[in-house]
Amino acid sequence: MEEQLFQACSNGNVEKVKELLQSSEIDTNWQDPEHYYFTPLLIACQNGHFNIEIVKLLLNDQRVDVNKADKDGWTPFYIACCNGHIEIVKLLLNDQRVDINQANRSGQTPFYIACHEGHIEIVKLLLNDKRVDINKATNEGWTPFYIACSRGHIEIVKLLLNDQRVDINQPEGYSGETPFYSACDKGHIEIVKYLVNDSRIDINKEENEGWTPFNDACNYGYIEIVEYLLASGRDLNLTNIAVETAINIAKESK
Questions:
Q1: 41, 104, 164, 189: least CB-packed within 10 angstroms?
Q2: Is the CA virtual torsion 82, 84, 90, 91 positive or negative?
């Protein structure tokens, strides 16, 4: 019976789900060992918009554990945010039982994964919910702002910069790279330009081995970033590398 419920949720068979939920004996939180130990609610949230009626049915059944995760710690809310299913995200946000900050085994929260995947409308939605921990970092120390800068999601970077709650200089835990350092490291020139124009950004903060964002841009040959930083009017820490040497390194690495 449990496998039938799982399949019905997976296939979008609303009537079958209704029928099976009538049973008082069915385990509504059964986990499929062949599918990462997903529950019926998890598979319904993963499959998205065509399953929204099934998600509603499951949320209305008090037996359903709305926060039960798969083997990697992915909850229904996390997977809806990851896959960009905004209508399901809205449904789950309105259910007070849902732990909207519950992280997976890597420490990634639903808000983090929405920033990682570039789902801007979901990011907007979560920013407007004061319960969301918008600075919670992963096990590696990567914050949502850090990952948005690292992956080049400039519209999300702009959104987060405009929220005074966001710690825009928080470094990641392993190398000590800041979000600005990561943008320089990945060559995201438009994000670099946007961040340089925010006086709150520490553009000289070194990572754990003493490299600055400017050093890193030179090393990787990002001549456009190097030239922009030199022309920005911001004070650069050039104690470890002269301007002429920086430009030469950038040109040689190109």
A1: 164
A2: negative
